Amino acid sequence: MNEIDALRRMRTALAEQERPERLALRVDWRNDAVRERRRRGFRVPLLAAATATAVAAGTVGAIALRPGDGRSPTRGGERTITPGNALLVAAANAQKAPSGTYWHTKTVMGEVYAVGESTANHYKIDSRQATEVWTDGNGLRRGSHIDMADVPLTPQDKQKWQAAGSPGWVGVPNPEGGGGEVHLDVANRYGGRSPFPPYTEKFYGMTAGEIAALPTRPKALEDVLLGLKGHWHAVSEDGEKEEPIRALPGQERIRALTDVAGGLLSTAPAPPRVRAAVFRMLAAQPGVRAEGPGTDPLGRPGTVVSLPLKTTAPLGMYTAPKQLGTYRRQFIIDPANGSLLAIRDLTATPPKGSRPLPPGDDGKPRSLKARDMPDRFNRPGDLVSYQAFETAEWTNANPPR
Amino acid sequence: MAMVSQAPGELDDAEIVAASLRTPEAFGELFRRHAPRLHAYVKRRLGSSLADDVVSEAFATAFRQRARFDGGREFGAWLWGIAANLIARHHRQETRMYRAFARTGADPAEDGVAEAAGDRAAAAALGPALAKALASLNAQERDAVLLLAWGEMSYAEIASTLDLPLGTVKAKIHRARKKLRKVLPEETTHE
């Protein structure tokens, strides 16, 4: 099948034409001139506000967390959790987690955009979406996408947004280098939940069966994961061949390995013993460092673990750089429950200057410019984006029909 | 561009645009002829709820600017060009849907309508990989390759719609196809 045929088989259900009479009932182009935007109530979950404050306050510290400090009952028991052994405690507790018929996850993803003209006069919007998925032992997945309202990041941001007239749509510079604006949907006009037909998917090239059969000793697990083939660079080249993770130089190898580790601890249906081995493997990686207590983007307390990386751009996706700053990535784990609560990316050095992009298709020069970046007013330590795993558990409960 | 069939004796599109300058209601016939196919295409790119809006705005814009329509041009190409500009405004929303699809295997654009039976296996196996590649295309590459695959247009029609030289359209499609080919498995996997 060539790529055009493959595209033609995608989203076929959406390609069906409707009769013009029926369309005319919904698509009232005559009254378009002044169209009223139906606004839903603006929602700021209390949790999000609390979280944002915690993020802004920073998290680095070396205070020992004791079991029971967290809200949830511990499975761990006797061991004291210090930053130094947080990953190993998490491993021990992950192993004791119950098993079940379905791996059930709900993931909230956010990207932070600055709105405004200057450091002194701007506010930030957290652009959010979520997915909820049930995966069975055969890798058959059922789930839905939830489009959430984009919300001001902190109470201060909310005040500024209100002072600007509480706009339902806010425009920000197009960060992709093509000029123009993109729009954020604070009114959540198109929000809602879209369910999906069941589907199967590989995780980093592995089937659900292969994930279930992964080694449960950290060294053996690492060996298998280093053999995974894929496109593992933040900036790929055209025509680049797939390569195993072990072929990458030092820091890039750790980055790819921790990307896969993050997946195995969150959305992939890994059994408890494999998850435990992932935590142990992480503890042994150079540059992976447990830092101290912190709060995840949903307001849940945990331990912050820093990972080494240069850019947070998704691996294997782009052929040109997407960012102008440098970043750091943190896992926020709950050692007492053996779970990964969230992955978040923070500014290390704010974006500056510009960078030419490969020649535009229209022949016009394009470039990535700091003044178009969503994080253009960030200071070191400010939140850039996150994935929070609100739910990630094996369950015997059935997915809703 | 595949045009809606027109009974003998009926006015052609350009004649209707001209007539609508005096009799605005005449424009409704252009909606009847062109809306279903345009709507299906936009739906495939942006999902159902946005598609209603984009098509509505495309016709409203065409109607407002009908005095400027060049009668020597295909009305369809002009209308789809307006729609392409409107779709571009939602570039980020479109990309985030592809990315969500790639990351989770669940396609936000879908309404839960079942795929046609024969396509289900292929779509389930390849959808997320294709979505990942689509997310990585820039706006013009995406427009060009999807007008070809989903809009069922010829290269010449795409050039006219996007108001680009034919050679540029070919180059864009070539580049987009290369990126898409990269994500397809050597041997297509079925469930």
TrEMBL record, chain A:
Residues 361-379 have a biased composition (Basic and acidic residues). InterPro entries: CU044_5270-like. Residues 347-384 are annotated as: Disordered. The chain crosses the membrane at residues 44-65. It comes from Actinomadura physcomitrii. This is CU044_5270 family protein. Keywords: Membrane, Transmembrane, Transmembrane helix.
From TrEMBL, chain B:
One of its GO terms (molecular function) is DNA binding. Pfam families: Sigma70_r2 (PF04542), Sigma70_r4_2 (PF08281). InterPro entries: RNA_pol_sigma-70-like, RNA_pol_sigma-70_dom, RNA_pol_sigma70_r2, RNA_pol_sigma70_r4_t2, RNA_pol_sigma_r2, RNA_pol_sigma_r3/r4-like, WH-like_DNA-bd_sf. One of its GO terms (biological process) is DNA-templated transcription initiation. Residues 30-96 form the RNA polymerase sigma-70 region domain. Residues 129-180 form the RNA polymerase sigma factor 70 region 4 type domain. Keywords: Sigma factor, Transcription, Transcription regulation. Belongs to the sigma-70 factor family. ECF subfamily. This is Sigma-70 family RNA polymerase sigma factor.
